[in-house]
Amino acid sequence: MRGPVLLRGPKIPARTSDGSLLMEQESVDWLHEDPWRVLRIQAEFIEGFGALAEVGPAISVFGSARVPRESPEWEAAVHIGGEIARAGCAVITGGGPGIMEAANKGAWDAGGTSVGLGIELPREQGMNPWVNIGINFRYFFARKMMFVKYSRGFIVAPGGFGTMDELFEALTLVQTNKIAGFPIILLGREYWGGLLDWLRGTMTSKAMISPGDTSLMSVVDDPDEAVALALGEAR
Ligand SMILES: C/C(=C\CNc1ncnc2c1ncn2[C@@H]1O[C@H](COP(=O)(O)O)[C@@H](O)[C@H]1O)CO
Question: Which atom of ligand 1 is nearest to the CA of 63?
Fold first, then answer.
């Protein structure tokens, strides 16, 4: 046996795990092997659970990392972050620039809890300055779970692939009843219209989703309505 794994015949290693542990280290390559990565992954969950356990009710705000400061989308996200904080909820974002920093700024300026769940990226941006609880993740999947576990709902502003990933993960979790009573609010009818038409048309008519599935999200133009809907249906 190697731990819980049964090895027989030629698969039996020359050295036992104990033996390897006690040997003088020749190489640190083993640190980069998948079984050891599990410990890092575990550590991300432990750090995340520890840091967020007492964050209280929260709403996650997603959207493009690329919208410029002071653009209408950025200002709307500042307003949304402020309103969520004034309602006594924490704001959770990806901790980056664009919509993320805007929502964090709104929460920060309102004296609220402003959480950033950052991600290690090749071109490091660093956590935006309006985060007052920040956690940096190596792995997208660990980080994505935190958004869902610690939020009562999602507000999704216009964005690119990252935003789509976050939106469709939440939709899948609601569709498959992994989470219930979880409002998903899309901000910006014009931006989201084309996607919704395709979901209602092509995807529904080809029976890839059920007719009711597109009702798992709401689409609004008014930031205050987005906040009210996100806060209104607590899990
Ligand atoms: C690409 C740029 C900065 C990248 N920095 C990010 N920091 C934290 N989180 C990010 C970052 N980029 C994407 N995300 C996540 O995806 C969503 C936005 O992605 P999109 O493709 O821009 O829609 C966002 O909600 C984050 O969770 C600067 O140019």
Answer: 25
